[in-house]
Amino acid sequence: MISREDSWTAKSSDTLESFLKMEDSKLPVSLRSNLLDLFGQIEREFENLHIENLELRREIETLNDRLAAEGQTLEGGDLAKGALKTKASHSTSQLSQKLRTTYKASTSKIVSSFKTTTSRAVCQLLKEYAGHRDGIWDLSVSRTGPLVLGTASADHSAMLWSIETGKCLLKYVGHQGSVNSIKFHPTEQMALTASGDQTAHIWRYMVQLPTPTPAADLTQQQQPPPYEEDGELSDREEPDGEGEGPSECPCVRVAATTLRSHQGVVIAADWLVGGRQVVTASWDRAANLYDVETSELVHSLTGHDQELTHCCTHPSQRLVVTSSRDTTFRLWDFRDPAIHSVNVFQGHTDTVTSAVFTAGDNVVSGSDDRTVKVWDLKNMRSPIATIRTDSAVNRISVSVNQRVIALPHDNRQVRLFDMSGVRLARLPRSNRQGHRRMVCCTTWGEDSASCNLFSCGFDRQAIGWNINIPALLQEK
Question: Which of 121, 187, 120, 179 is CA-nearest to residue 154?
Fold first, then answer.
């Protein structure tokens, strides 16, 4: 006796064979095969949904019959009938909710299948930056020429990379602990790094960009391998050893300025507008504001109840936001020299892993509670948008021009949302491309000619992506 599954397989094979023999189709065989597989998934989803719907209908009919029978035997007047009506209404409401949830879940799976296929055309992996010997915590793109990518790693080093070629240009080895963040000066060739050695360093760099790959070779290199939606890479498949660092990469060993005064790990640091002051965030529950020229501590920003996780400065105003494990983030206002006000945001239920400014009057916060919230600085009582995800969110970033939020997740995914909370895409990931471990950070580099989004993680690599944002927003 032929099983239903065998029948389906035979039917799919016949359909596939006839589909592939279509002479009028201009599509490649691999693409047609992929489309057929997706249509098969849709049919199976609707078939399962139809079966569940029939079962729920039978349950509703059985319930109605039972309630009708009870209604005939119940005594006690209108009160009993009222109770019976309430009970019936409550049960029917539960079933209706179950039906809606089932329809929504199934439809989401189907839409997600199409979304992933479409997103691949507008979200392409272009370059991998490999050379660190441990996980990469943070990355940043320089704000002045030459345009380079900077990465901060747990291997006690920071590296500068050519965005176009993926070649390491310079390595900073002045820290004695994990390098937890890296940020570039707004106008000069200087970098600011924060470390587990309880210090922040400012160091100068001079790099010369290598000749980019010819356009023909670059186009060939950009072609992604066949996509596998749920491909996994086990620990046994992880490359052995510590990885081959770029041996020819020149090193900087001494900082131009060392900022001391924290009593714990310095987890993040950033330049204030103008580049004359920097702010640091530490596990000692304080954020410090320093003068760059004198290295002196200007202000110590205290108030958080637990370790700080991140700090960020506004691109055009003297504003600082700090996030903490105490489930809050705080806005510090230094625009008036005589008044240093602070506002506390209490919208999360777990560690706030990062909070960043947009080019306008918004702050976007991400948390281990699997949510991202968008706030208006003029009305801080409640978020104007909330994004709910299936995994903890790490250091987020927002594009300056198009205001697209890039979310790095513990589950190795990177997702893109708009400022109103609408999901735009999930970056492609398979067992041959994408991150293999937790994604720690994302940053936008919109001045780059090729890659305009970068991500890094515990798999010891940074990845450069090309995101066609206008096409992505049009799909929405």
Answer: 179
Q: Under the phi-then-psi rule, with left for phi > 0, alpha for psi from -120 to 50, and beta for the rest, what region is 312?
A: beta
Q: pLDDT tens across 286-337, in order? A: 999 999 999 999 999 999 999 999 999 999 999 999 999 999 999 999 988 7
Rounded to the nearest integer, the mean pLDDT of the chain is 82
Secondary structure class of 195 (helix, strand, coil): strand
Residue 167 CB: number of other CB atoms within 10 A?
15
Euclidean distance between CA atoms 190 and 150, whole angstroms: 11
What does the alpha-carbon distance between residue 310 and residue 356 come to, in Å, rounded to a whole number? Answer: 9
Pairing relationship of beta strands 385-388 and 371-376 according to DSSP bridges = antiparallel
Residue 460 · residue 134 · CB < 8 Å: yes
431: Cβ contacts below 8 Å, ≥ 6 apart = 228, 231, 232, 233, 237
**Phi, psi at residue 62, to the nearest 5°?**
-60, -40
Q: Are 339 and 381 in contact (CB under 8 A)?
A: no
Name which of 196, 320, 347, 337 is nearest 263 in CA terms: 196
The torsion angles phi and psi of 289, rounded to 5 degrees, stand at -110, 125
Greatest pairwise CA separation for the chain in angstroms: 92
Q: Is pLDDT above 50 for 403? A: yes
Separation of CA 175 from chain center: 28
User: Does the pLDDT value for residue 119 go beyond 90?
Assistant: no
Sign of CA dihedral 36, 37, 42, 44: positive
Peptide bond just before 146 cis, omega within 30 deg: yes
Scanning 265-416, the segments in alpha helix (DSSP H) are none
Tell which residue, 167, 196, 45, has the closest CA to residue 114. Answer: 45
Which strand ranges, in their side-by-side order, compose the sheet holding 158-162? 136-141, 148-153, 158-162, 168-172, 251-252
In terms of Cα–Cα distance, which of 230, 225, 145, 151 is closest to 186? 145
Nearest CA to 157 out of 186, 197, 209, 210 is that of: 197
Bridge partners (DSSP) of residue 168 are 161
